[in-house]
Amino acid sequence: MRNYLLSILLFSVSFVNAQPSAAGKTTVDHKLVKKLEAAMAGFKGDAGIYVRNLKTNRVAEVNADSVFPTASMVKVPILCGILDKINRGEVAFNQELIYRDSLKYDNGIVGSFRDSTRIALPKIVHLMISQSDNTGSLWLQAMAGGGATINQWLDNNGFANIRVNSRTPGRKENQAKYGWGQTTPREMAELVAMIRNGKAISPAVSERMYRYLGMQFWDGESISQVPPTIKIAAKSGAVNQAKSEVLVIHAPHGDYVFCVATKNQEDQAWQKNNEGYVLIRKLSAIIWNHFEPKSDWKPLPESEKYWF
């Protein structure tokens, strides 16, 4: 009997650790689920989405627990990793960093610096989140202790499926399959919700991270389907076969969080009409109109938008 009870206890602990704890008790929004399923039907690839209304705790999900590439959404757990290091006093927040050519990954902003350029750490964090700068992100990943340290933080906080793969010992196979990072739509959405609710590391650290997430240069997909007067915290990602985005929308009738991700896309064109981008915009519009049915705001037609 003792061994049986012990087995049940261990299973329960494992289950709790494998799920984000922020959501609590939820109910299913069946009407929204049907709308999302209809919009996703016929997509040439795999797609998943998780939506939670943070006011009512109603959820809608389609393939929400399937694992997808994060692409640049991996920069959210990197943000948690570097801010955790700072909070522990192992890294100084306002320190001045010196860029070296050996750090260069691509020709983004940080990768275009001259050797010996001096820059404050908070500016690198800002570039990682707002501009999705890859060289800066890998620099911060290393400063956070590497992917293994970030993954341990994720595991300690109940995220069993979000992982940093690139430059992380023991994760070459995962990197070959998913790229820099991997996640489920549910876990990435709940990670951002955790930050929004002041539960990541500390209320003060969560607030700083949430302010960074609220400064987005790349606003052409999900964000473009929400009025510009609405506060949004977000991070998007894209590689050839996968597109993704996670957002918290501060809607008039209640905040909501959602994460949409794709993989194995047939359409790999880097154009605004890429099927993944189109799907993300469509789903974002559906969710906004579902929660705000009386909103008289409409996004500009594609032909009138100033894309950059």
From TrEMBL:
User: Is Signal among the key words of this record?
Assistant: yes
Signal peptide per UniProt:
1-18
Which parts of the sequence belong to the Beta-lactamase class A catalytic domain? 48-262
Q: Which controlled-vocabulary keywords does the entry list?
A: Signal
Gene Ontology biological-process annotations: beta-lactam antibiotic catabolic process; response to antibiotic
> Which superkingdom, per the lineage?
Bacteria
**Care to name a GO molecular-function term for this sequence?**
beta-lactamase activity
What's the protein name? Beta-lactamase class A
UniProt KW Mitochondrion keyword: no
What reaction is this protein's catalytic activity? a beta-lactam + H2O = a substituted beta-amino acid
